[in-house]
Amino acid sequence: MNTLIVYTHPNHQSLNYAFLEQTLKGISENEGRIEIKVIDLYEEEFDPILFFDENKKRSDMHIDPKFAAYREQILWADKLVFIYPIWWGRPPAMLLGYIDQLFSTNFAYRNKGKYSHEGLLKGKSAICISTMKGPKNYPLFFLNNAHKALMKKAIFNFVGIKKIKFFEFGSVEGSKKKQKSKLKKVYNYLKKYLLKQEWNKVITHNKDGEYGHSYHIIVHRMVSNILYNNPVRYKKFKVFDFDDKNNNDLLKRLKIKNYFTYGTNPKSQFYIKNIKQLKDFSEYDLSIKLPGKKNLNIKNIKIP
Length: 304
What we know:
With 304 residues, the protein is α/β, with parallel strands linked by helices. It contains 8 helices and 12 strands. The radius of gyration is 22 Å and the shape is globular.
């Protein structure tokens, strides 16, 4: 799993920086396969000022070369981790400026009519680790939960990110003992979080198919595409054809308890349908139904 950490605090001696260190430590000790990239917005002197005029149009921000590297980082990431203080009931202007310029039209979302839009960052998830001087429940009772409403509803949900975990820590100027317990909470979560989601092995037809069967070759390509190229990216994943008696026997021998099914059977969790074999590519639709997740339908997937 690719994890992008966006750190937003000017002081490397702060509690926020300690949260960054514990985040990195927890991920490094996680048994899952995780790749990490870190952006330190203050250290990089990120320019948060959103500017556009008749020559530099806001609708062209998604192709602005100034932010190309940042867009690539977001596309690369499966999980986005934001670490920041809460000032005046919301994240720092530096982080909001990053969001203003990176979560742009035709990159993070696209309009579909006057009152409709489509989020383009589907399949990604986010973690927000925030700190504030006031008590933990102050935003909830006195600010109508403004911080979480902003981050979850106005930003992440709008661009298609539905799974968000919040660590909203209050009274951060308290005792060192309480600070350590907060740091440990983040460390423990990141040390273990991936183990609940990822899998160990891919089992499917090999690239040459069974007995050179052309359909099996196509299925291998489709499964490879499912695993690595579409918005639902599972890098470590047990995959079987639809659950029949032979598969049950194999599961028992390998002592595998958790698995997903794929195939052309409508009961498969990764249901491949409407397959078209054209001259230069194969095309199919994919219906994904996973426990505890919203159903996802992807149309017109093309593979060479």
